[in-house]
Structure formats: C-alpha cells, structure tokens
Amino acid sequence: MNLEKLIEKIAAFKASHPEGTFEFFVQPQRDLDDLYAELLILDVVTDAEGNATARAEEALITLENPSNDELAMLEDIAESLKQYL
C-alpha cells in the first residue's frame, strides 16, 4: 500500500466517525498456521471512570507472517501517525 492510499483510508475513517478520538494500534495475531499483524485505526471513547473502549476499528495495513523488522516498522508507522493526528 502506498502512502496516498493509507492517508485516504485514514481520512475516510475519520469522516465516518467525526466526533471520534483516534488511536493507532499494531495487533499481532495467530491463526492455526500463520501469524498476522495489522495496523489498526481505532475510534476510542473514554467513559466517566477513564476506561477506554474502541467503538470502531479498521485495518489499515495487514501483513502475513511478518518478520520482527516488519513488526517494528508497523510500530514506527503507528507512532508516526499518532504524531500526525
């Protein structure tokens, strides 16, 4: 995925959740045979007690069987996007 498409996906998610607070999160997960990692954008709401809950999420990037370097790259992208927003 190129940067332009990534920015378009973020803009579309933000437009569909106009009152949201956004967070980026890298989620590694394993199914029966493979490891996947997703870079997610989350629309997060915090209740009166300070507990955060995701109201909506969308995978921006998905990698199958990512290496440690690729996982680190996703984390770096997530941190950069947090600063961007």
Short description:
With 85 residues, this protein is of the alpha+beta class. The chain has helices at 3-16, 68-84; strands at residues 21-30, 35-46, 52-64.
Please name the defining characteristics of this protein:
three-stranded antiparallel sheet, alpha+beta, 85 residues
Written account of the structure:
The protein is α+β, with helices and mostly antiparallel strands and 85 residues long. The chain has one domain. Helix content is 36%, strand content 41%. The protein has a three-stranded antiparallel sheet. The relative contact order is 0.22. The mean pLDDT is 91.
Question: What does the largest sheet look like?
Answer: 3 strands, antiparallel
Beta-strand percent range: 35-45%
Q: Please tell me what the overall shape is.
A: globular
Number of domain modules? 1
Strand order in space, largest sheet: 1-2-3
Question: End-to-end distance, in Å?
Answer: 20 Å
Annotation, overall tally of beta strands: 3
Helix content: 25-40%
Count of helical segments? 2
Q: Whole-number average pLDDT?
A: 91
Rg, rounded, reads 14 Å
Q: Structural class of the secondary elements?
A: alpha+beta
N to C succession of SSEs? HEEEH
Are there runs of 5+ residues with pLDDT below 50, and where? none
